[in-house]
């Protein structure tokens, strides 16, 4: 039983409207679900992804208005990668980010792939990563209504970076519990810091990697807008998820137990450095309650919240995501 790779990454935003504009207009992603935080339905939960919202392409945001900025530090998910088809695509993205006034670095090699670092409007840290040398890793299907040409479009999630003060306990969870394996290391860009360790799961490839960074020069992260809340890993189905729940319980990790998120089923637990992990099933998927051609255009609520729709809509600030 192997985790298949990264399922989704969930981050924090203070401004749903600006978030929607950035991720659809600048990055060209599709809003695949406009819903609410199921644990706090007074705020939005926005899901972006490829045309169908396939697992492994999903980037999600909880909106907490007036949230303080993220303070970067250890015990954090410190960077998220987004896959593009080729090295040439990175040249396109340099120009596009410049055109939109987005802060970015230079194209550099990282773990054997060309990458382009940038920050979103709330300073969340990203890398665009080329699939040039990962030709057999299945990619998502770019949205045909995106303003980004298909040959340069973002096709899914790439490596996720964790930053911790001491890596040993996190390594044990990744390898002994979750079945990741050490693939490689590469130098840190920070002086006097250890090399970054690359762990992979499933069939490998950029969408199945965790990059583990040790930093002795940072305080603990204070999660805020522009920070990442959790990373989810892919389980094939619900039966497999229940087996993972048994395994997490046997390892004596406090956890959420089985959680039905309607669009997928989940388990949550924190590894020893305090980073929140989720294991999520590939299905049922985001077309469960909306037609594929109209994903994300209206407020979608899971059945257990549908009876509260009027109250929820009265609290939420309107967010127009209808098709133009």
Number of beta strands: 16
Structural class, from helix and strand content?
A: alpha+beta
Amino- and carboxy-terminal Cα gap: 44 Å
Question: What fold name goes in the CATH topology slot?
Answer: 2,3-Dihydroxybiphenyl 1,2-Dioxygenase, domain 1
Rg, alpha carbons: 19 Å
CATH architecture: Roll
The outline comes out as globular
CATH class: Alpha Beta
Q: What is the average of the pLDDT values?
A: 96
Kindly estimate the percentage of residues that lie in beta strands according to DSSP. Answer: 25-35%
InterPro entries: Extradiol_RC_dioxygenase (IPR052537), Glyas_Bleomycin-R_OHBP_Dase (IPR029068), Glyas_Fos-R_dOase_dom (IPR004360), VOC_core (IPR037523)
Domain VOC: 5-131, 156-282
Organism: Niallia hominis
Protein name: Ring-cleaving dioxygenase
